[in-house]
């Protein structure tokens, strides 16, 4: 059972990089001319929430916390706004950079569940 859990944790580390890329590509759409923040931000909230939950469940509490902060920040953006303010753009980038650093430095052994005896 422990080997199966470790394999799941290892796959999660690989999946995280794909999910981070998904969020990055999603948020990059905000730079397009006439981009409406509402739908893009809503999608990014969902992607952040997914990383938060899966990482928390698999013992990556720091990644889960960073994804939660990004999700919370995104929820504070007015979905009806015509465009993001410079402050909002910088806030998104700050949170995304933090999540990026954590995901790219994560290894399966960083999971709190990696050495759990089952």
UniProtKB/TrEMBL annotation:
Protein's UniProt keywords contain DNA-binding: no
Cross-referenced PROSITE patterns: HPT (PS50894)
Keyword Phosphoprotein annotated: yes
Record domain HPt: where: 1-113
Biological process, per Gene Ontology: phosphorelay signal transduction system
Phosphohistidine modifications at: 49
Pfam families for the chain: Hpt
InterPro entries: HPT_dom_sf, Sig_transdc_His_kin_Hpt_dom
Alphabetic keyword roster: Phosphoprotein, Two-component regulatory system
Source organism per UniProt: Rhodobium orientis
Protein name: HPt domain-containing protein
Gene Ontology MF terms in the entry: protein kinase activity
């Amino acid at each position: 059972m422990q080997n199966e859990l470790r394999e799941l944790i290892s796959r999660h580390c690989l999946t995280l990089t794909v999910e981070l890329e998904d969020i990055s590509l999603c948020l990059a759409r905000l730079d397009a001319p006439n981009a409406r923040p509402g739908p893009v931000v809503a999608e990014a909230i969902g992607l952040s929430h997914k990383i938060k939950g899966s990482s928390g469940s698999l013992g990556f509490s720091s990644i889960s916390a960073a994804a939660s902060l990004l999700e919370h920040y995104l929820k504070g953006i007015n979905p009806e706004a015509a465009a993001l303010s410079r402050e909002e753009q910088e806030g998104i980038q700050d949170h995304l950079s933090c999540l990026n650093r954590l995901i790219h430095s994560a290894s399966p052994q960083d999971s709190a569940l990696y050495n759990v005896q089952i």
